[in-house]
C-alpha cells in the first residue's frame, strides 16, 4: 500500500469528505480525487497541508 492510499484511508476513517479537504486547500474536490487515485502528483507543500488538515481535523462529532 502506498503512502497516498494510507492517507486517503485516514481521511475516510475520520469521515473527512474530499470537499472538506478541497475547501481547506483552495482546490477542487475533483483535484483531491485525482491525487488520491494516483493520477496527478502534488507538490510537497500541498501534500504537507493535506496531511496536516487530516491530522488536525475536528469534525462536528469529534
UniProtKB/TrEMBL annotation:
Domain HTH cro/C1-type residue range list: 8-39
Name of the protein in its database record: HTH cro/C1-type domain-containing protein
Superkingdom, natural source: Bacteria
Annotated InterPro entries: Cro/C1-type_HTH, Lambda_DNA-bd_dom_sf
Amino acid at each position: 500500500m502506498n503512502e497516498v492510499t494510507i492517507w486517503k484511508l485516514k481521511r475516510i476513517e475520520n469521515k473527512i469528505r474530499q470537499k472538506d479537504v478541497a475547501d481547506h486547500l483552495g482546490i477542487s474536490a475533483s483535484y483531491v480525487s485525482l491525487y488520491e487515485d494516483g493520477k496527478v502528483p502534488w507538490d510537497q507543500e500541498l501534500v504537507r497541508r493535506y496531511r496536516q488538515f487530516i491530522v488536525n481535523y475536528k469534525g462536528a462529532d469529534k
